[in-house]
């Protein structure tokens, strides 16, 4: 079954897992298997005035819709592109007096589209919205209560003159949003800014060690001629060589968790038991729980004690970060590392979590040499655990490279930036803003490295002068959020 640009994949059904996607031809790492525009998408409630409602880019100055005073756009191009989807919403917000929550807005956009196009297959979709999983039957009491509240709020917002839908179908749409909502990120890919429904992507099953990754591409509306404009879309990209007939899989959760934790998370959020090879055989769990090797191997009680201390410290760190007490975070990390280092192995996830936070916060505080040391150890651990073409690994290696550059460690910095660039070329592609930024850094550090190799003394003199004249680039404030996860789940 293929349709509109989806000729390279087919939907198939397996026992136990339901529908999935299969490759129809061979793909190599970095190939785009398919790109899919959103069936419907909305900006998160907290960011509606700082993110463009069409391309989901974060912009300094946005144009506000003069009618509803709610929607914001980069420019007239984005505003015109949005009108088909915003038209009904615009008049409903004016009539209602205020905009409802993101869930209600997304459900309304889906139902307006069904009203316009019918509930069957949309162009380029392999399955219809009616056929998507909703898992409403698996909802717990709390989720059912939230669903009832959402349906009531929706009915208050939904205009009388529009097509009326039955309660069961409205509940189905909210169930679909809850299980299949995909996280949309800003152009740097660092912050989750919205949620969208992509019916074809929803067909890709989970694997903790997948052969594909998904990247959100904000599109380009800035080209002078509109024929070169590209719309916002997700891209499914190959991570390995994929043969015809292979199932296409993506990971719904971050791999950097023990198999038991990943399975719990998947069961709670997506209502299935993961049976992938990495979970069944608990592959890499030994690395993630590694203890110090050598003659004086720590006792089981000591290991248990240090892991509990690590968990308690992570809670204290979260509290201090929320309050912006970054020097307190650094102290907590240093104290915890002093206890972890004699006991935990260099790939232990509790050690890696503390190293990650310490390097990020110290970079922000411009204590780059100490940050670089922790970042290097973090990356060394990640490289032994993550899939070699994992997007989160690429981002972590990039951050470590920038930290080394700030610390004046040009050789290590350039090496890490090249490594990150090789990963992100596969996971994000050459035209993604993150990859383009990284390419600029790669060229600059290569030039600096040549200068350093020719005359070390002159290199440091010139670097010192350049940093004096130029306002040092402050690292972004540490985020309390993890990297955006693949599917958006209302907590």
TrEMBL record:
Could you confirm whether the keyword Metal-binding appears in this record?
yes
GO biological process entries: methylation
What Pfam families does the entry give? SET, zf-MYND
Q: Which reaction does it catalyse?
A: L-lysyl(4)-[histone H3] + 3 S-adenosyl-L-methionine = N(6),N(6),N(6)-trimethyl-L-lysyl(4)-[histone H3] + 3 S-adenosyl-L-homocysteine + 3 H(+)
Q: Which CDD domains match?
A: SET_SMYD1 (cd10526)
Residues in domain SET?
Answer: 7-253
Per the record's keyword annotation, is Nucleotidyltransferase included, yes or no?
A: no
One term of GO molecular function: DNA binding
Every MYND-type domain range: 52-90
Q: What is its EC number?
A: 2.1.1.354
**Entry's SMART domains?**
SET
GO CC terms in record = cytoplasm; nucleus
* Keywords of the record: Cytoplasm, DNA-binding, Metal-binding, Methyltransferase, Nucleus, Repressor, S-adenosyl-L-methionine, Transcription, Transcription regulation, Transferase, Zinc, Zinc-finger
Description of how the protein assembles with itself and partners: Interacts with HDAC1, HDAC2 and HDAC3. Interacts (via MYND-type zinc finger) with NACA isoform skNAC.
Q: Write the protein's name.
A: [histone H3]-lysine(4) N-trimethyltransferase
Q: Which organism is it from?
A: Erpornis zantholeuca
Q: Which gene encodes it?
A: Smyd1
């Amino acid at each position: 079954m293929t349709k509109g640009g989806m000729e390279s994949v087919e939907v198939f059904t397996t026992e136990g897992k339901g529908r999935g996607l299969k490759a129809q031809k061979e793909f190599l790492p970095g190939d785009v298997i398919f790109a899919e525009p959103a069936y419907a998408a909305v900006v998160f409630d907290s960011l509606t005035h700082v993110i463009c409602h069409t391309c989901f880019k974060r912009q300094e100055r946005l144009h506000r819709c003069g009618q509803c005073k709610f929607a914001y756009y980069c420019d007239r191009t984005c505003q015109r592109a949005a009108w088909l989807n915003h038209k009904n919403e615009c008049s409903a917000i004016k009539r209602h007096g205020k905009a409802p929550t993101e869930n209600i807005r997304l459900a309304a956009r889906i139902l307006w589209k069904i009203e316009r196009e019918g509930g069957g297959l949309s162009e380029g979709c392999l399955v219809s919205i009616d056929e998507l999983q909703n898992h409403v039957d698996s909802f717990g009491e709390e989720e059912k209560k939230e669903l009832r509240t959402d349906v009531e709020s929706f009915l208050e917002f939904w205009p009388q003159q529009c097509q009326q839908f039955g309660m069961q179908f409205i509940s189905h749409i909210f169930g679909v949003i809850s299980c299949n909502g995909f996280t949309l990120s800003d152009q740097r890919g660092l912050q989750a800014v919205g949620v969208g429904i992509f019916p074809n992507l929803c067909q890709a099953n989970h694997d903790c060690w997948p052969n594909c990754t998904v990247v959100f591409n904000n599109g380009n509306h800035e080209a002078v001629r509109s024929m070169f404009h590209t719309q916002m879309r997700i891209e499914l990209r190959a991570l390995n060589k994929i043969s015809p007939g292979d199932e296409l899989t993506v990971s719904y959760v971050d791999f950097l968790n023990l198999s038991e934790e990943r399975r719990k998370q998947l069961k709670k959020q997506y209502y299935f038991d993961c049976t992938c090879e990495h979970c069944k055989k608990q592959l890499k769990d030994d690395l993630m729980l590694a203890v110090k090797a050598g003659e004086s191997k720590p006792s089981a009680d000591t290991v248990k004690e240090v892991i509990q201390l690590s968990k308690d410290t992570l809670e204290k760190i979260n509290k201090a970060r929320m309050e912006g007490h970054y020097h307190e975070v650094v102290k907590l990390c240093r104290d915890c590392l002093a206890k972890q280092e004699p006991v935990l192995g260099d790939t232990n996830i509790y050690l890696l979590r503390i190293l990650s936070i310490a390097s990020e916060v110290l970079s922000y505080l411009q204590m780059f040499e100490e940050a670089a040391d922790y970042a290097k150890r973090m990356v060394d651990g990640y490289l032994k655990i993550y899939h070699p073409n994992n997007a989160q690994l690429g981002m972590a290696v990039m951050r470590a490279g920038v930290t080394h550059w700030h610390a004046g460690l040009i050789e290590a910095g350039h090496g890490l930036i090249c490594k990150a660039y090789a990963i992100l070329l596969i996971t994000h592609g050459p035209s993604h803003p993150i990859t383009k930024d990284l390419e600029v850094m790669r060229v600059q550090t290569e030039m600096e490295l040549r200068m350093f190799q020719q005359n070390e003394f002159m290199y440091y003199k010139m670097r010192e002068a350049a940093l004096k004249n130029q306002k040092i680039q402050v690292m972004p404030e540490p985020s309390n959020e993890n990297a955006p996860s693949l599917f958006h789940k209302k907590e």
